[in-house]
Design a protein that fits this description.
With 206 residues, the protein is α/β, with parallel strands linked by helices. 51% of the residues lie in helices and 14% in strands. The strands form two sheets. The chain has a five-stranded parallel beta sheet with strand order 5-4-1-6-7. It has a two-stranded antiparallel ribbon with strand order 2-3.
Length: 206
Amino acid sequence: MTTTRFVFFDVGNVILNFSHERSCRQVAELIGMDIGQVEELIFQNGLQNQYESGEVSSAGFAAKIRSDSREMPSNEAVVSAASDIFWLNREIVPLITALRMVNFPLGILSNTCAGHWQYVTKTAPLVKLYFTKFILSHESKCMKPNPKIYRDAIESVGLPPESIFFVDDRPENVEMAQRMGMDSHIYRNASQVLRLLDDRGVRLNF
């Protein structure tokens, strides 16, 4: 088995939990629309995917929502309502901290938009403190499981893909990472990740 030399984590449902329902409810309350209409506008019509793919900016995302609104909140208020949806997955913190304490290189490989990323780093300051590489879909201009975002991740660390460990909560994202040669796994819990890393020669004071 190849020794792991770099670890990428997904964000959603790995480092942080999140709620799309909370996003829709907060936006609906802000702009005076039915929550079902907001869900259709943002998620069913693909606006969120466009935002996470970098096809639209934060201003463009907010402008689209405001154009269908009975109210006229600021762009910043719309983005905040749609993005303040995260809370820390506390069980993963000791593992990430232990990796950092032995100076193991860590990265983020995540589908996210500019608004969400702002709240990710606000909710979990450890992201900016402990991680060195950030491969974000709105910057790569494509979302997992598009092969390009995995190539961006592999090229960013300059290592053979088989030496790069990656955990994600979505099977299709893990499957594509494996096809790109990465040592990728569905995230179950922190204990599972610890066992997998130990099997690959990653030794922690944990």
